[in-house]
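Comment thread on ticket #2218

A.B. wrote:
> Attaching the input chain for the structure job we discussed in standup.
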Amino acid sequence: MNVPATREDLMIVNMGPHHPSMHGVLRLIVTLDGEDVIDCEPILGYLHRGMEKIAENRTIIQYLPYVTRWDYLATMFTEAITVNAPEQLGNIQVPKRASYIRVIMLELSRIASHLLWLGPFMADIGAQTPFFYIFRERELVYDLFEAATGMRMMHNYFRIGGVAADLPYGWIDKCLDFCDYFLTGFLNIKNLLRNPIFLERVEGVGIIGVEEAINWGLSGPMLRASGIQWDLRKVDRYECYDEFDWEVQWQKEGDSLSRYLVRIGEMVESIKIIQQALEGIPGGPYENLEIRCFDRVRNPELNDFDYRFISKKPSPTFELSKQELYVRVEAPKGELGVFLIGDQNVFPWRWKIRPPGFINLQILPQLVKRMKLADIMTILGSIDIIMGEVDRLEYLKEVYGMIWVLVPIFTPVLGITIGVLAIVWLEREISAGLQQRIGPEYAGPLGILQALADGTKLLFKENLLPSRGDTRLFSIGPSIAVISILLSYLIIPFGSNLVLSDLNIGVFLWIAISSIAPIGLLMSGYGSNNKYSFLGGLRAAAQSISYEIPLTLCVLSISLRAIR
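C.D. wrote:
> Ran it. Output below, let me know if you need it in another format.
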């Protein structure tokens, strides 16, 4: 009887990426010893869209429709931080009614974000039914958004100095009805705490201590679940949060269950804030209309270009004063901040985003080590990340990584090219000295780039084609000669880590490819239909075969041996 052999090697597993929604585009390279997690490496960058560089090439009004793509489940917060930065930079006052409307929209967005965290989180640990229930309440929130802003997800509602439009008639009553319904129906979600399977999956899993949370720079429910009562709505007192009666939700255990409880409690507190804001919302304007004339860049005069040819008045633009500041809000996932530098221009000189998901995700490898494979989804779900804000800059890291991979390739290529040019220059100087004449060395220092100039002139010089020759054959010849030299750099066999795998094979392949160049020279000479040109092509081919290719081969061999 053959007993199957048991392998004791570590196994490396790829988790993701899957779908652009939620945390689907996150890739985890997990090293497993059976069911135990030995190591975990998050790979980012699959959802990068260059949001920071787009901001530096747009005015604030033009950039507002873009920002809802950072965290597309809490879009009101990305709009709020975008307008708060220039408001503080320009000391712009927001009307009281507009501030109340902002608070209402922000807390509704917090509820929608936590609801859409709760459903997938429960699905990740095996409970599918709550996923359908949370969509019912979330759709009610989106109905309110649609009635007030015209859009369900990407609202473009916040403006510098207020909001885009006032609340429509009957909206406040509809929102109060939603608050009453939500508080009564929310008891079903709290019943999950009685489920022993749910408690077994989340209790004591992914514990983060107080010092760890501070040292890793965590914020939001990740920080408050570890016993730290830190909420920017209480600390910074932005908008009008200090006028409402509400409590900071926190736990002290620091596990996945604590983070669940913090978010559940925050939804209830958000309902309290919304009810108080709806009942005490003042009258007055919903936007500071004076800022429409604030620092206008130019004033069109009669009969100028704008007056005559631009029928639609452009949106108001604001010069950002030459100073810098950091603005932050308490988003559902943590501290969402923007570092803004103005430069007396309508475009920000620097726009740096501080997304909470990117900071909170850093602790994932430490949390999953020495845990079971099934606990990865529990811990990852409890962090609550949105890859739209996590990947805002990771593409640049990928680009830098690609550059550093290509540097060892281009370095020997550049060295070989310089060596070939130097050898050709030396050959021409020696030949000119033997013939007691000055060689045609004009390009570059000491004429060292003359060979490159000759090749370029051969390809692009006008009136080069002979009138009685074979035009196609004469044109293809130089291209074959040049392309063969370029191809010779691509066939050298490299192994892993850009180490030359076989020097002998590389040399023979280089000779084979380089031998095509003399054929191109012969084709050009033959296609000219001129015996002198044909003899010149034979001479050039003989010269290339006799000593130019061997000299280049020597340089190539030395370079390849050096980088090996």
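A.B. wrote:
> Thanks. Noting for the ticket: Residues 394-434 form the longest helix (41 residues).
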